[in-house]
């Protein structure tokens, strides 16, 4: 198995995508530290991994605080002797439009997603660098962080920030042989179950039925297990040359997201005044303006929610 002898930490691994990542890493041979704030969910995840022949241990604590990050690393090393892989998956939602979002709603999401990713990665790479054997860091992003989404100021900021940190860390950790990548998953989870557009796919998954091809192929939307192959690959030696990348995954689809690049470059001798911009904008710049938010094709009639 490609991850034999490796040790992984997965945050937010008590359910959903995090649980799917932890079980896949264990199936590929890794010992797994399962982190979650829900003690019962964490214990159940460990039991499921062990029942399938894997090795796992639970650490029940919220991500964000430095103490939690250090506790995760300490548990991995004390129980399994090393640390090779970190998957930062833990997250929460506190959705509200900008003018209704409270300080607490903003801070809670930033603390778990952004600060939690920072503190956990920092603790992990301190150990990995000292051990001198390289490592794999996989941070979980979102389409919202790439394009924005109505009512998710806090979540969009956190997920965009994670991608910015991933690109920076890839540069800083290259000499240590530690790769850092972001995964952008799209799957039937608790977070997507309330979106009417995906209702037919989520319903099929909950019933144990195949997700319809329209969702799997056209939208790249499938099950949590569809995402786990990419995580296992990025955690393996086969991905030693892959770093600083943002990879979308869901259903039957894989996407490499581009790093931000200028969509258009234009020069005007002496600089751009208001008058020159106003004159040139409609013909020179307007055609290069970028899309915001996700735009989905019309649902086939068979999958439309009842009105």
TrEMBL record:
InterPro entries, alphabetized: KR_dom, NAD(P)-bd_dom_sf, Peroxisomal_Beta-Oxidation, Sc_DH/Rdtase_CS, SDR_fam
Tagged with keyword Oxidoreductase: yes
GO MF annotation terms: oxidoreductase activity
Pfam families: adh_short
TM region positions: none
Domain annotation Ketoreductase: ranges: 6-194
PANTHER family xref list: DEHYDROGENASES, SHORT CHAIN (PTHR45024), SCP2 DOMAIN-CONTAINING PROTEIN (PTHR45024:SF2)
Name the UniProt record assigns to this protein: 3-oxoacyl-[acyl-carrier protein] reductase
């Amino acid at each position: 198995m490609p991850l034999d002898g490796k040790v992984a930490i997965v945050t937010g691994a008590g359910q959903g995508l995090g649980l799917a990542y932890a079980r896949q890493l264990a199936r590929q041979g890794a010992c797994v530290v399962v982190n979650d704030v829900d003690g019962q969910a964490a214990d159940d995840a460990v039991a499921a991994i062990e029942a399938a022949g894997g090795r796992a241990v639970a650490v029940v604590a919220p991500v964000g605080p430095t103490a939690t990050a250090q506790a995760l690393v300490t548990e991995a090393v004390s129980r399994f002797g090393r640390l090779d892989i970190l998957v930062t998956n833990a997250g929460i939602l506190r959705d509200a439009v900008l003018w209704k979002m409270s300080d607490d709603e903003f801070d809670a999401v930033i603390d778990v997603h952004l600060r939690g990713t920072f503190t956990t990665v920092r603790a992990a790479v301190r150990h990995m660098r000292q051990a001198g054997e390289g490592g794999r860091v996989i941070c979980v992003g979102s389409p919202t962080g790439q394009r924005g989404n109505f009512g998710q100021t806090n979540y969009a900021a956190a997920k965009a920030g994670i991608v910015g940190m991933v690109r920076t860390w890839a540069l800083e950790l290259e000499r240590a042989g530690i790769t850092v990548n972001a995964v952008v998953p799209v799957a039937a989870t608790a977070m997507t179950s309330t979106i009417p557009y995906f209702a037919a796919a989520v319903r099929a998954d909950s019933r144990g039925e195949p997700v319809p091809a329209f969702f799997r192929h056209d939208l790249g939307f499938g099950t949590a297990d569809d995402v786990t192959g990419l995580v296992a690959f990025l955690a393996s030696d086969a991905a030693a040359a892959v770093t600083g990348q943002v990879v979308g995954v869901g259903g039957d689809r894989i996407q490499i997201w581009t790093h931000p690049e200028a969509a258009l470059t234009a020069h005007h001798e002496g600089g751009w005044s208001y008058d020159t911009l106003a004159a040139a904008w409609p013909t020179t710049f307007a055609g290069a303006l970028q899309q915001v938010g996700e735009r989905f094709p019309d649902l086939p009639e068979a999958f439309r929610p009842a009105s």
